[in-house]
Specification:
The chain is an alpha/beta fold and 1046 residues long. The chain has 49 helices and 17 strands. The longest helix is centred in the C-terminal third of the chain and has 23 residues. Keywords: ATP-binding, Nucleotide-binding.
């Protein structure tokens, strides 16, 4: 009998192969392609994919393969682990680590060969980071060389693997990746079916059916190596439906036994049994153990399980290869087809299966001790299956290890499923389970469920674990459960009676008996009370003091740090910055001694925040040290924290051009990694950008956004809205929001870190509305704090000096001397901090309200004060945040009557003339018309499976697209004069000058009107000199000696 070849496997699949070839070509040309191949078992999916992978390799692409396991307990991301391990082996571990860069520690959770796993917080957000890191790694590989990734047997894939497949497939940017998945469409569970149905909508889906009669005839003749009567192959086709595996088995059965083909489908089962039955008993024993082990045969494991030598296993494998049951691979053997393995398993009785699972588990345990290359999940699977004869010890040990490994790989649902299967097996087998074993299982499963987002299920398991601990008098166990319940969290400012009850119950038994747990529980209780409803909060302070006292005696760095943080959070209110600075310094010292970089960075950030509240420039040294650690940790969440704090510093120093860019960059990163507080941080920072900008329409829009965003803090939201409406001149809006604050009634009691912004904006509204009573109340509250500054969050946004807000209130109440002292004190603080924009504001306020440095009534000047301009026109003055448009205006005012080229204003030098169009419009239009025709022809070719034509059309389409991109701009228009640097500069300069003048209208309307009439824009811009009054202008950046500055 002739052996089967790759060609035999692909008989009748020529059209599908051609279609796959078209898709592969697209990937080789830099496109991201996703293909799903479906069909029943034995229909030829795997053979087809092997052919495509071989073709890709021949054309220079990387190829890597992963196969899902048809057994419970497979590690999370298992097929992807195989794919990525294969790629790491192909390019080398050092090159893989270079390519992974900062993501290497994260990727190591599913690809151990990349090095040490990063200790990331195991959350659903971290799981998303892993998906993103894997996609970046694959895209990086594809930039160097096209990449083909094959995932077979997706019907058995775990949820994490399918989520990663979906994520890579949906990545928005082009990449030379061909992602191929194969699955049995008739063996899908509901969750896999739902996931694959969504994938099909943005993938190429190829469904394999049975072969036609001609293909069956050709296949049978190739298998048998002789001519076959067409009536025989027609009968085989009729009885098998053209299913290739069934065709082979029936044809081979007839060839060996001269039997009939009329026994299908029973003949298929008979064929498998007859093929295996012809093998020696020793070979059948090997195949039985191999079938229980998995699809791949591990010679040492099988030998150990059977008590024979590896040479005997190799001999048995040779017999099985000759009979077509096994196939040789590069590293060993595997079953030639899944149906063969499944047929062997079906013949095993229940007792024999349990015995084999036990023997395989013990053999794998020895291999683990010897080579360390066995996944804990594989050991757990066998010992769970053998629990009725092996007992619980090994099953519990390896299942807990497997769940921990899955959580480390951020496969939380899979971790919970491992433990759930263990509990089910223990219940079904009626084995005795010790309380301490069940406790560990319940706590671990609850943790995995909580991380997967199943909070209610986690609570139920923790209740059961808590009952076990209480019944056993286990102090440590009771504490662990209580702390885990607290970790599940609750909504801010809502009742949390269950959490408080668990913590208090655990604390009552830990007090005096377990010092470390007593300290941890007291700290947790203090934090929970602080974040609970207002009536619970008074208890938080004394408990945080007690926690700190216990933490200092506990002789445990992590415990002391958690107690210090609890005390810090309870104290976090304006006026306590010195005490909090001391606590932060101690957190830094404790973390440094323990080598805890994350806690070290957290302590430095809190220290920087407290120093900034004190108005000390030393805050920057602490913040720089914090950012250095965050940069070194090189994890996405820490990059986000660093970028948001750099945005805060840019705002503080008045760099209003840089700050919005940094804010948006940080927000984009935060959204990508699903950082929970991203929108709140962005709103808090945008608040300061809009406030500093002073544009009426932006202020009004932000007031509306504030009320819609801060729904959980309505007093804060309405205070911000009141202040912004007042700044925009909307007195009715300001009055409405002030009334809302007053009606809510608790505004003088709640003093979180939002308080400084709240007070500043409410004070702004009170001053503009001339509400003397409210001004007086606010000034009374602020007076004790005038030596400090407000900071929103932990160095999220600087909110100004409290002396500044108090000075404005004092001025509104007619207390001129008090106001002057307070504003000057604020100015000194801003000067120390380098807060140039704030310094310009306070100096402008002094000039407007107190005549300090007031200009003569006929003077005109522009003076740059850090991040702002002090502008005076005919005696009226105001401060305006710096913008490029104001810099242009300063340049023009400094050289009245002089034509200045827009490229000089843009700091460019190219003044060449227009280049004309690169391609005429008719040519571009003809290209577009042909592209439309190609799309229609491609649809028709796909309907009729004309794959050769599809290849030609695809090549023509790509060539036309390249030409259109070369000749047109991003909107497909001909590249012409409008794309020239001088024309772009003219448009940009005109727009920003007009925008700057528009922003002056509500502040200095006479100046805005004057500039509208006297500034001419175009390729050359000019200030048309009017009369003898000259402008005094600080020398603008880029001004030349020839400019006639006055």
């Amino acid at each position: 009998m002739p052996g089967r070849s790759a060609i035999d496997e692909l008989v009748g699949r020529e059209q599908v192969l051609d279609r796959l070839g078209v898709l592969l070509t697209r990937a080789l040309n830099g496109q991201r392609v996703t293909v799903l191949v479906s069909g029943e078992a034995g229909i030829g999916k795997t053979s087809l994919l092997h052919a495509v992978a071989a073709e890709a390799t021949e054309q220079g692409a990387w190829t890597s393969w992963g196969t899902s396991m048809d057994t419970d307990g497979a590690p999370g991301h298992w097929p992807w682990t195989q794919v990525l391990n294969g790629l790491v082996r192909a390019i080398g571990a050092d090159e893989a680590r270079r390519l992974a860069d900062d993501d290497a520690p994260l990727l190591a959770s599913i690809v151990p060969s990349l090095g040490q796993v990063s200790p990331v917080e195991a959350t659903d957000r971290s799981r998303l980071l892993l998906l993103d890191a894997t996609t970046r790694f694959l895209d990086g590989l594809a930039r160097e060389r096209p990449l083909v990734v094959v995932l077979d047997d997706l019907q058995w894939a775990d949820e994490s693997s399918l989520a990663l497949f979906d994520f890579v497939a949906r990545a928005p940017h082009p990449s030379g990746i061909c992602l191929i998945g194969a699955y049995r469409h008739d063996e899908l569970n509901d969750s896999v079916r739902e996931r694959l149905s969504r994938l099909i909508t943005h993938s190429q889906h190829l469904h394999l059916k049975g072969l036609g009669a001609d293909a069956v005839h050709e296949l049978v003749e190739r298998l048998l190596g002789r001519r076959v009567d067409p009536s025989t192959t027609e009968a085989i086709h009729r009885r098998t439906g053209g299913h290739p595996f069934f065709v082979r088995e029936v044809a081979l059965l007839a060839h060996h036994d001269e039997g009939t083909v009329e026994r299908v489908p029973a003949a298929v089962r008979d064929a498998i049994e007859r093929r295996i039955g012809r093998l020696p008993d020793s070979t059948r024993d090997v195949l039985q153990v191999a079938a229980v082990t998995g699809n791949d045969l591990l010679a040492d494991v099988v030998a150990n399980a059977l008590g024979i030598s590896t040479l005997a296993v190799e001999a048995a494998a040779g017999d099985a290869i000759e009979s077509g049951v096994l196939a040789a691979t590069g590293s060993g053997w595997r079953f030639a087809h899944d149906l063969l393995r499944e047929g062997i398993l079906d013949r095993l009785d229940a007792h024999r299966r349990v015995v084999i699972h036990q023997a395989v588990g013990l053999a794998l345990e020895e291999r683990m001790a010897r080579a360390g290359d066995v996944a804990p999940a594989e050991l757990a699977r066998h010992f769970i299956a053998a629990i009725s004869c092996e007992g619980t010890h090994r099953a519990v040990r390896w299942t807990l290890a497997a769940a921990a490994a899955d959580c480390g790989a951020l496969a939380f649902s899979e971790a919970a499923a491992q433990l759930r299967r263990l509990r089910a097996a223990m219940a079904d087998s009626a084995v005795d389970v010790e309380d301490d074993q069940l406790f560990e299982i319940l706590v671990a499963e609850a943790d995995a469920l909580a991380r997967a987002g199943s909070i209610l299920d986690a609570r139920g398991l923790l209740r059961a674990a808590g009952d076990i601990a209480v019944r056993a008098g286990d102090i440590d166990g009771t504490a662990r459960v209580a702390l885990a319940v607290a970790q599940l969290g609750a909504r801010f400012a809502s009742r949390r009676d269950e959490i408080l009850g668990e913590l208090e119950r655990a604390l009552s038994v830990a007090t005096g008996a377990h010092p470390v747990r007593e300290a941890q529980l007291t700290a947790a209780l203090a934090r929970e009370l602080q974040h609970s409803v207002p009536e619970d909060r008074p208890r938080a302070g004394p408990l945080s003091e007690r926690a700190l006292e216990l933490g200092r005696r506990a002789d445990d760095a992590a415990t002391l740090a958690s107690c210090l943080l609890a005390r810090h959070d309870v104290l976090w209110t304006p006026g306590t910055e010195q005490d909090r600075a001391e606590i932060a310094r101690e957190i830094v010292a404790v973390a440094r001694s323990a080598g805890d970089d994350e806690r070290h960075a957290e302590g430095l950030l809190l220290l920087a925040n407290a120093l900034l509240e004190q108005g000390s420039p030393a805050f920057e040294a602490a913040l720089d040290a914090c950012l250095g650690i965050l940069d070194r940790l090189a994890q996405p969440r820490y990059r986000y924290l660093a970028e948001t704090r750099r945005a805060c510093v840019a705002l503080l120093h008045g760099r209003l051009d840089d700050a919005p860019v940094l804010i948006d960059k940080a927000a984009a990163l935060g959204s990508r990694i699903r950082e929970p507080d991203t929108s709140n941080v962005r709103m808090s920072q945008r608040l300061e950008v809009v406030r500093a900008g002073g544009q009426a329409d932006e202020l009004r829009a932000f007031a509306t956004q504030a009320v819609g965003h801060w729904t959980g803090a309505p007093i804060h939201a309405h205070a911000v809205a009141a202040g912004f409406c007042a700044r925009a001149g909307d007195l009715e809006g300001a009055r409405h929001h002030v009334a809302a604050v007053v009606d809510l009634g608790t505004w003088r009691a709640d003093r979180s870190y939002l308080w400084s912004v709240f007070m500043r904006e409410l004070a702004q509204a009170a001053v503009v509305l001339e509400d003397r009573d409210l001004c007086g109340q606010l000034l009374t509250d602020l007076k004790p704090l005038t030596g400090s500054c407000g900071v929103n969050g932990a160095v999220v946004a600087f909110a100004g000096s409290h002396a500044h807000t108090a000075g404005s209130l004092a001025a509104a109440l007619g207390q001129r001397e008090v106001a002057r002292r307070l504003l000057e004190r604020a100015g000194d603080t801003y000067e120390r901090l380098g807060a140039t924009g704030w310094l310009a504001e306070v100096r402008g306020e002094l000039a407007r309200t107190h005549g300090l440095g007031q200009a003569p009534s006929n003077s005109r000047s522009m003076h740059r004060l850090g991040g702002a301009w002090l502008m005076t026109f005919d005696g009226a003055s105001t401060t305006v945040p710096h913008s490029k448009g104001l810099a242009d205006i300063a340049r023009l005012l400094a050289a009245p009557g002089t034509d200045i080229h827009v490229l000089d204003l843009m700091a460019a030098a190219d003044r060449s003339g227009p280049p004309g169009s690169l391609t005429d419009r008719r040519a571009l239009e003809s290209y577009r018309q042909r592209l439309g025709e190609i799309d229609r022809e491609a649809e028709e070719s796909a309907r009729y499976h004309d794959d050769q034509r599809l290849v030609r059309l695809d090549a023509e389409r790509q060539a036309l697209l390249d030409e259109v991109r070369r000749a047109g701009d991003v909107r497909g228009r001909p590249r012409q004069f409008a794309n020239h640097p001088a024309e772009r500069a003219r448009k940009a300069v005109t727009a920003r000058i007009r925008d700057a003048i528009r922003r002056l209208e509500p502040l200095l309307p006479d100046l805005a009107s004057h500039l509208h009439q006297t500034i001419v824009t175009g390729t050359y811009c000019r200030y048309r000199e009017e009369g003898p009054r000259a402008w005094v202008v600080d020398k603008p950046p880029g001004a030349r000696p020839t400019d006639n500055a006055s």
